[in-house]
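Model: Ready when you are.
Researcher: Fold this.
Model:
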Amino acid sequence: MRKVSAVVESSGLSHIGPVREDNQDSIHLTDGLQQPGANRLFAVADGMGGYSHGAIASSTAIEKMVECLGPEDARLNPRRFQQGVELANMTVYRKAQQLGVGRMGTTLTAAFISGEDLHLIHIGDCRAYLVREGRAICLTSDHTAVGDLVRAKLIPPEKVRTHAQRSILTRAIGISLFVRPEILRIKLQKHDHLILCSDGLWSVIQDHEFAQAVKDSLSIDQVSQRLVDLALQRATDDNASVVAVHIRELHPQIMGPQEPVKTGWFPGWKKRAK
């Protein structure tokens, strides 16, 4: 039986930007080098600027994701990953009612690294980029009105950043009782870089420039700093947030034969996670 363990390093920054009066973005990561067995959850959330208390919504969503997965998980139960989004959605929805502020919501893009597998769960218009062998690929779809136009091939992808309705969301956490996230699973390779970012950052940075930032940086901290600096130089009109992750090593491990699992009378029944 083959098992792979990953050594990763990460960094992240969140900046208020030159226009906004408050920062409604939230990020989650474990800074620095992480050996096998460490928590591998990374996330970026952007509170919806058109609604009240966006900062509360984004921080609450990430808090509930962390709570649902648990702080010491080294391997991922995919169902718990989705349950984290459902818990985040319901908590933000109820918090808005408790605060009496009407609707409030947030986008959320979260990644969990389990061995050589990258699990992504995404709703809204934050983005996840994979930089591999000098090329940046956007892994997520924008859940926006303009994103729908791109998928319908009514406008080309390069028009998204300058479109007047770029920020009109079609999916978000906390604005209704039910949420429909996008879920992806990807095999990682050594020296891959994962970049999660809010729309205040990617809206002023072209896809190929994410790969260039990785190429020009000597450390993972420099990757995050370069991208935020670039967004500020180009006068982004929103908060700018990024989490950058580097897959430094992937170590194959040969496992011995496993003991047979006794299923008892009801092999289809599984104990619910608390």
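Researcher: Now this one.
Model:
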Amino acid sequence: MRAMVFEEVGQPLRAVERPTPVPAPGQLLLKVHACGVCRTDLHLLDGEVQIAAPPRILGHQIVATVESDGRRVGVPWLGWTCGECAYCRSGRENLCPLARFTGRDIDGGMADYTLADERFCFEIPPGYHDLQAAPLLCAGLIGYRALRMAGRARRLGLYGFGAAAHILAQVAIWQGRRVFAFTRPGDIPAQTFALELGAGWAGGSDEPPPEPLDAAIVFAPDGALVPLALRALAPGGTVVCGGIHMSDIPSFPYADLWEERTIRSVANLTRRDAEEFLALAPRVPVKTQVTAYPLEDANGALADLRAGRFTGAAVLTV
């Protein structure tokens, strides 16, 4: 089978031929049809998130069919948990210290075939084409979890209007919230895209919003955005950091945090998040905007993601 393999930090993925893997008990052999490209893949390439045992096949937004019975399933970032620790037993399996993650600890979906724990495979809503479904499995799930952490915020700021934000904006607007989109300064295409999706305002991340926010979700991995988002909050507001990696947050005066403002992070996802969000997406309905690349051009997709050359999400066709 074809596979795009990570071998070492700072090097592009390498196209290799590998034997088709054989499932162990509890695993499914999956024929991959599409695999989303995520900013986490860039963090893995750059060594900001460590791969402990390379080589590794990246990719954790997998849409595939089960070889044994033809079911169409999706595989997200969280690929295995112990089920026994205090976190797993209290509904917080996303914090399991032994958790294994797809495309980091377990070979992922940038290949013709992959293996997955059956417990962490989810039915794809039938109305979604493979390409449109792939971003739901990470961008959608992390966005949905971050939105839950934002509470009942009516005025919601989204910092970094990429794959996750373009999905989350649709959900938030459907829920009756007002969305304020923050992009790279001068990124008119992304701001126009946000307004087309229903955002009430769009501007650069260095601009203050026209009115205070009840919550802000920071998807861009730039720690300097956190104090900016904090200053944009109304009293009692929350900043949610939605990425697995972020550059250091610079110091800021206590006055920016005062009046019961909060900063918190979101880590990974749970199976409950996946079940709830994949049931919700068709009701909104969430429509994903994707740019498709062939599997062999995974490095091109990653380079375009790094440079911000597309709006929405990038997906590999397999």
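Researcher: Key takeaway?
Model: The chain has a mean pLDDT of 97.
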